[in-house]
Specification:
heterodimer, A: 2 domains, 4-stranded mixed β-sheet, 4 strands, elongated, B: 604 residues, alpha/beta, Rossmann fold, Alpha-Beta Plaits, 3 domains, 6-stranded mixed β-sheet, 23 strands
Amino acid sequence: MWRAVFALIIKELLAVLKDPKSRMVLIVPPLLQLIVFGYAATFALNRVPIAVYNQDHSQASRDLIARFTGSRIFTQVAALNSARQINPLIDSRKVDLVLSIDRRFTRDLLTHRPAPVQLIVDGRDSNTALIVLGYANSIITSFSLHWLRSHGEPPPPAVLDIRAQYNPTLSSRWFIVPGIIALLTQVVTLMVVGLSVAREREAGTFDQLLVTPFTPGEILLGKALPGLLIGTVEASVIILAAVLWFHVPLRGSLFALYLGIFLFVAAVIGIGLMISSIAVTQQQALLGAFLFMVPSIILSGFATPIANMPAVIRKLTWINPMRHILIVVRGVFLEGATARAFIPEYAAMAAIAAVSLFAAGWLFRRRTY
Amino acid sequence: MPAAGESPAALRLEKVSHAFVSARRTATALREVSADAARGTVTGVIGPDGAGKTTLLRLAAGLLKVQSGRIEVLGIDVARDPDQARRRLGYMPQRFGLYEDLTVRENLDLYAKVQNVPAAQRHRRGGELLHMTGLEPFLGRLAGRLSGGMKQKLGLACTLVRVPELLLLDEPTVGVDPVSRRELWEIIDHLVHTEQLTVMVSTSYLDEAERCQRVLLLHEGRLVAATDPASFTARSTGRSFHVSAAGIGKRQLQEQLARTPGVIDATIQGAFVRIVTAPGAQPPADSLAALAAPLSVVAVPPRFEDSFVAQIKQVSAPPPPNTPAIATGGTRSEEEASAAMTRREGRAPSTTDEAVIFADRLTRRFGDFVAVDAISFQVRRGEIFGLLGANGAGKSTTFRMLCGLLPASDGTLRVAGYDLRHAAASARGRIGYMAQKFSLYADLSVAENLRFFASAYRLHGAQRSARIDWALEEFVLGPYLDVVSRDLPLGYKQRLALACALMHAPEILFLDEPTSGVDPLARREFWLRINALAESGVTVLVTTHFMEEAEYCDRLAILAQGRVLAAGDPESLKARARTAAQPQPTMEDAFIALLEAAAAPQAA
């Protein structure tokens, strides 16, 4: 049996690797995507354009403005002298934030009354607006603390002391790049495996396979193992690039990481083979693969937290292998976790793999015309 | 109507050569072909695969750039003014681009609009064409749901919607059943008569070539004959004979005759072996006396095909010796023969009357549609059994059920004692399967395909290499060892597919339309091998829509609309169609007669 399965694997790998086009697809787009996403996909903000409407003209207000313009996050692009100028600037997206300092600012500060500072933010992109406000808030807080200390006042009763565990500088690249490992591994594996059965059906070679003494199990292995090999190699290349190029710390156990990737690739192969067995043509298989891919990425926690999703959808994400591998990859990379921490994720991916591979094997023989 | 002073020929080729250059190699498709087609005639272009037929038509249609020589269409130099020429001709490629998700009417309207046919004319012309092609009842049907023959007729109608003066047809009848084939030719003849149309048609059916006023015979890009069919046929006058011998099976006799020097061609025709001798060869009675049994040799009138094969064999290098000893053991190495023996020993002892393939009231339904309707037949060991029928008759469905690829809805079937759908995987090791499209791994080389299928059939070690060597030698694939099978010539693809199917010396061989699209010479070679296999005890089940191939079968079943119309040996089936008007009916005549008889009670 193993000799025959080995022949199937050789055949499958030859079919993928002999064609220069499909060889290209395996290597070039994933690396390009890794580089582009690694640099471009980030939540961090830089040089956010702001305008300042300062009605106070005092040492204190200039000090506050300097704290804004001195950080690399904000760049002042305009100084206003009328409230009417605010809206046009925001409308035309020339600035994302307007800092408006009331003329009673210094007076209130000196008389121990709350000194109002107005922040007007462009709320059209809610995510960016929240991040901008967060930065502005922390600048104002640190200004207040400094003011109290330098004027011999007692500090406020409660003071925030934030430490970001696992990602001290809150670098969003550390969050995104491990996600890309999962994302690209899924794309490549799904493309290689998802089209394979449909391609053979189109060429008529699948019938030829079915009339040889291969059992459905052997055909399944012959299709799954090359995918497993290709998917794991692909993942390894991206992991190397993440560590060596993007300097994302790989703190946990490699065993935990590879066990996760193995189960993840197996689950993706199962889904790919299922799609491939249902499809009659390669085109249908391709459409099917995309139909799966888009929701699997959006509902994986790759960009938006699963915790924010409605309860029903949250439950649904359990059948999404990418949701689980993201936990494993990020856990191993950033937390330095070991395999013991991921038993529920491993179990879920193994279950998805088992069910989908079994279904694919069953569909091989059913879907016959 | 041709204006005065215009060239009298509708199409004129002068020393046309054409080569396809790719990164790896240059393939010459045409070499200095000069020919012309007179207005209002039908010219047939014939020749083996790769002879350059399609290239010739595509050049004339202005779809390929003329590389060397000169082509005139209706007096227009195609190289200089291809658009002008294209406006006056119609071209129908092998696979016409029908929109399968549009209806018959929508397809016709679409092509009329694309061709800028004015609305009024479109309506009138469309009506005429629909009437002529008999598609009127199917106006609202999706093109994808038409039969092969109806699709071709619709394709022809779409080509003719703007009245062309020159019509170029590239193998319009491939895969079309005999009845539709006749109808298509009637349409073409009608157009030539009523519209003074000039037609150039390429075909691999030689009976169609006989309907043309002129035939151009191409071989390896050269024009080897340009003449009218009757005088072409007459070239082998006095060289065609029917041979039979008491006590020798027709297949054995054919094999012997094919090896006899001076015999160019030997084919099985019913109970006889038809031979064509080389020009100037001795009378057959003498040269065949070397054979053991007394022969009866009867001179018969030549056929077009006799001259075709003679002509091609004369101009091409001698083919590899026709001694396919596929499983007879005669030419095989000791080691390999013993390997095959060990494989055979595992089989149950057999008698020749044993039914190896058995179908009883076999039925397959797809929803409401009954594709195969309670058909029953039996195939004995060592027999060649044919399933003959038009597209959609249920051949392929039956075939797929027998191979275990499709579950039967009802009825019983047994192949070598098993229902392959439910039997253990090892039972499939006893059958060989060759699909219609020569299902090979196109990206893999010949050697890689052979190695894969050898392993698939659980061969390994010395046995595996012995079988691969056998295949390379037997099918003369050695020179192509490292060629990617996508790039193989069609005939070699077929050889490779057969080699893969025979890797494990199966006892039953399933062949689905094995010669579809293959030229007459390659078909002959193929059947010679199949004959040798049957002689060695392999049971062969073959589906075909080539009526003349039925002659090679020991017994056959003619299918139509999922039912067996008739079953029996070729002679008795032909005898049924014998009438005073048709004393010597061909298998095609018999087939059409049977279909008409079956349709008659329905119409009443």
